[in-house]
Amino acid sequence: MTTVAFIGLGNMGGPMAANLVKAGHTVVGSDPSEDARATATEAGVTCVDSAVEAAKDAEVIVTMLPNGTLVKRILSELIDANCRPKLCIDSSTIAVTEAREAADLVTAAGIEFVDAPVSGGVAGAQAGTLAFMVGGSDAAFAAAKPLLEAMGKSITHCGEVGNGQAVKACNNMILAVQQIVLAEALVLGERLGLEHQAFFDVVSNATGTSWSLTTNAPVPEVVPTSPANRDFKPGFAAALMLKDLKLAMASAEETNTDTVLGRLATDAFAQFVDDGNGGLDFSAIIKDVRAKGA
Fold first, then answer.
1. pTM of this prediction?
2. How many helices (H) and strands (E) does the chain have?
3. What is the pLDDT of residues 139-177, one digit of tens each?
4. Residue 92 DSSP code
5. Is 223 within 8 Å of 214 (Cβ atoms)?
6. Active site residues
7. What is the reported pLDDT for 243?
8. Which residues have CB under 8 Å from 142's CB, separation 6+?
């Protein structure tokens, strides 16, 4: 078993660290939130006051942080403090260029690096069923895979460093567009007199089906896992979807890729978040669709 430093014990990182503990690994964690540390401690994580303290004896470092600037700053601090794990796994969602810059910092110190962002939300983190999309060398991927398997059910090597972030940006752009058009279709169905259950029963078994419908349907009493059953308490918050869409749009601009629907989705979520809905699940965008047509 491995000694893992887990930096970032929030809504996603905390359950991920807990699943590493369940798999038999020794996990030492760090997070600025007292509540996050308390929850992680209950799950068997040894919590300490700083990332450097967490990483000083670790064989592997896992980072799950809110942005690329913080990822690079933390990794620089660990290297400056002479922390020398064998491997760094960054599961944050950051820009492709930021992932590659982070990799350069780490590999220059003789440490293997993979970017391994996730899909599956809080429910997937808790259940250990996340999908990991991994960028890095063959050797780094092989070293990371056993740990990722303790936290997820789908582990895909996507190629060089940064490619995990590239796939994540593409995936979440698709997801945002699907969630919006599903909301539009549901509202259209409502106004045509169609019951939600009938809509679900047909579309979930037809060509219009999607994860947005079968797992994240934005109407209550149709899918048990839906945040709509819990007043849109987030599995994946609208503010985080907007963050990911902005990363996708930045990559589209860098590569001169015309993403018409991606831009429309970004604008829609930007307005939704600006209106004070950033803390709701992203599927709550259906509220905006209903309001605009009322």
1. 0.91
2. 13, 9
3. 999 999 999 999 999 999 999 999 999 999 999 999 999
4. S
5. yes
6. 168
7. 96
8. none
